[in-house]
Amino acid sequence: MTYKTIIVHTDAGKRCTARVEIAIRLARQFDAHLVALNALSRVDLPGYVVEGVGGITIEEFRKRYAEEQASNGKSTFSKALAASGFAKSEWRASELDAVDAVTLHGRYADLIVIGQPWKEDNSAVNSNFANQVMLEAGRPVLMIPHAGNFPTIGKRIIVGWNASREATRAVTDAIPFLQQAEVVQVMVINPKAGEHGAMPGNDIALFLARHGVQVEVRVDEKSEIDIGNEMLSRASDFGADLIVMGGYGHSRFRESLMGGATRTLTDSMTVPVLLSH
User: Fold this and answer.
1) How many separate domains does the chain show?
2) CA distance readout (Å), 31 to 23, 28, 38
3) Looking at the domain assignment, is residue 208 inside a domain?
4) How far apart are CA 47 and CA 171, in angstroms?
5) Given 110, 144, 178, which residue is the final one in a domain?
6) Can you tell me whether residue 259 is helix, strand or coil?
């Protein structure tokens, strides 16, 4: 198992270049085909603008804005490719809403690379874009923080494990990363009796070991802080360059209602996070 097709979302945001460079690096690492997809959220014009111009003018404005964003994104991608010398790639631009575009194209990829939600970034996607993609795509989503440099991703990995369906999906989706890691630490926080077997974390560690993963298990049975912040703290102590965990939604019908640990990580991540739902 490996990643043979990686898709990266591009836009005019400040962190697009860093995200594209990471995606190129991962495509080379896994010998994958890289797809850059430019897509933005629908532009909502102020009421006074809508009242002052006709429908054709509004649509023309939206079209020109989308074309400008696509041009900027393509330029960013082309420059990064030229600097890297990487060739197994293609460029796409979609007129669909960003969530619809990335989830649709992402279903034909093994891994989706997107940016962390950041209200100060001029990315032309709505604030819930990243979380909606994670919940709807059916593919693992690698979320890149809006700040920081990440020369390595996946050498030292923290896995958040609670024996749930989502966590199981995330661990399985992350196996290509896990197999190449120098060390993987499985974290079990405040395990409940009956959920993990006789020894919390041991069964998933054995599963991963059979896939050739170097695993160690850490159990925090009396953590007094919330799971998301506990994981961020342990990731810092461990020197992790990737966190793997299940992405949770409180309701399948209300994608904006995220589980507490997921929300903490997507809001406050300090290293890339691989999420699966």
Assistant:
1) 2
2) 12, 5, 22
3) yes
4) 46
5) 144
6) coil
Which tokens hold the place of 23? 């995606």
Quick: pLDDT tens for 91-126.
999 989 999 999 999 999 999 999 997 766 656 777
Strand partners, 126: none
Q: pTM for the whole thing? A: 0.89
pLDDT in tens, 37-87: 999 886 555 555 445 555 556 677 777 777 888 888 898 999 999 999 999
Q: What is the CATH number of the domain that holds 196?
A: 3.40.50.620
In a domain, 149, yes or no: no
Residue 195, pLDDT score: 65
Clarify whether residues 99 and 184 are in a common domain. no
From residue 59, alpha-carbon distances to 8, 85, 93, 95, 100 in Å are 27, 38, 18, 12, 19
161 and 94 fall within a common domain: no
What are the backbone dihedrals phi and psi of residue 258, each rounded to the nearest 5 degrees, phi first? Answer: -95, 155
Distance CA 222, CA 100 (A): 41
Question: Distance (Å, rounded) from C-alpha 218 to C-alpha 235?
Answer: 12
- Asked if 47 and 115 sit in the same domain, the reply is yes
Helices and strands: H and E segment counts in the chain: 10, 10
What CA–CA distances, in Å, run from 269 to 17, 196, 230, 241?
19, 27, 12, 11
Domain holding 120, by residue range, is: 5-144
Type of residue found at 85: G
Same domain, 50 and 20: yes
Dihedral sign, CA of 262, 228, 273, 2? negative
